[in-house]
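Input record (one chain):
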Amino acid sequence: MLGSTQMRAFAHKDNFMSGSNANYIDYMYSQWERDPSSVHASWNAYFSGGSFESPPTLGQNGVGDVSSILAALQGMQGGSAGSADAARAADEQVRLQMLLRAFMTHGHLVADIDPLQLKEHYKDSPSLAKKFRFPDEKLLSLLDPAYYGFNEQDMEREFSTMSMAGGSTIVHRKPKWKLRELIHAYREAYCSKIGVQFMHIQDREKCDWIREKFEQIQFREPSEKERLHMYTRLNWSHAWGAFMASKFNTMKRFGLEGCESFVPGLKFCIDSAVEEGARTFVIGMAHRGRLNTLANVVRKPMEVIMAEFQGIQPKQGEETVNASAGDVKYHLGTTFRRRYGDTGHEIKLTLMANPSHLEAVNPCVTGRARAEQHFLGGKNEDRQKVVPIVVHGYAAIAGQGIVYECLQMESLKNYTVGGTIHVVINNQVGFTTTPDRARSSTYCSEVGTTISAPIFHCNAQSMDDVANTFRIAAQYRQRFGTDVIVDLVGYRKMGHNELD
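The corresponding structure, as predicted from the sequence alone:
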């Protein structure tokens, strides 16, 4: 059995006792102290020997090292209290926990979030893999069961999961899982059309909440009514773009072709926030998708949009007024009030005017949201009622300093707005630049990790997953009052503008 002297020695090895494995062992010990029958028999045998001491240097994060923890657990086999079978069972439990944690930590790196399937096209080309910042193969090996000592025969074996730590919704659905089924469930949760990047967050409550939300998606099918709702909204988004292309085919429109699901996604985000108490939305965005958002989300009258698009205003009585004023149609904004859905709540939607380019509108959005909250009273519950939403360009969020300047003030007493919902319309090329020439990070949204914001990467071609991701993002903001990022990964069908 592993003695206290050995345990203290391991406490100074970061790869083992300062990592997530130490958290797991300490958690099992606390469970055993409360009720010995609540843990697996192997853990009961181990802790009953009386030689375990909770180490003083347990950390909060870490992937852990397989060889270190296996070496430690092998010491259990020599003790009188723990048989070889009990030691082997405990060994398997820890290795399984490490495998499942790897899916939570690294699953987003292999998630099917790219409609263009660039990884499949370029997987045999190291130079192109580097150009598009694909993850290293050694890192991806952490998701291979063989890395943790599981073979093909183990895939059909059943493993007890009810005593596992980690706040996982999947493992607690039933007391025993076949390993193959358990791995499939985790792949569905963390490696499908949504990539969940959240293990950098230093708050267990937030991590557990995110796990619960995304792990249960696979067990719920949308109803026919919900699917029809998604289709209707997506159809409006596509039809508006097609109409503008035929009506104004010689003018720059900065359409959403390739990311049409952004509009219904944003509407589902607003739906969810309204259910959680929001009544005012302040939106800021640059050019891409702006006209579509004005028409289908903010509900600016379409005749006004098209009149302004041509540099005129609708007739006021018998007079037609020139409205060009040196500005351009995709810089204009509006404020609109309306009764919302079946709830009858009156909500106010504002899309901020953006006379500059790209991210310059960001502090204007948070400043206006803060002012709206101030006049409601400035308390936490007032911050829930006013939701700022900032829509970023793919290249701009990684390249412009103003993005970080706004992010880092998220929790400052005199600047906080109770969290901002960030959405990246990710067309994977920005203006004309490939990722290796544009940024150093794997994702364009990596700046969000500096403030421990969760980042939800989503395939823009999967409408079900887009709706779920935007809903969860709104719920997260309303619950925790901090920033959240949705990285909507699509493509750009046309050029930077349609005249390219």
